[in-house]
Amino acid sequence: MIKQEKFEIVNRIKSLIVYLETNLENFPKKDLELKHKLNNEIYDLLKKCYLANNAVNNDRKSELQYELISMVKYIDFLVNLCYEKKIINHKKYLQIGEKLDNILKYIIGWIKYTHNAEQQSQNI
Predict the structure, then answer these.
(1) Which of 7, 37, 72, 110 has its CA at 20 to 30 Å from residue 102's CA atom?
(2) In a domain, 112, yes or no
């Protein structure tokens, strides 16, 4: 069972990892490279999220947060390739897309929160 964290983005990324691990088992041999890229990107997304959360420097945190957005968009592209190659069905494609959209929304909210907190600290 996945340990719940206070950091909701991490919970959502972990949930996506578990979903993909259980639903993307039967990849054709010719597309295994795509599966590996997808897995690597999702684990890298989790790692970068931890790095951004622990960044002390606000500029570095902001940079990592924007990289997270790019990574989610790249993962979405890889998932779309899986769908176009008929590796995943329409239902799974929509479910994964919804999970990615939710992760993206949380990242954008986190960026806004970080930006507002930075502005408030400068006003003091």
Answers:
(1) 37
(2) yes
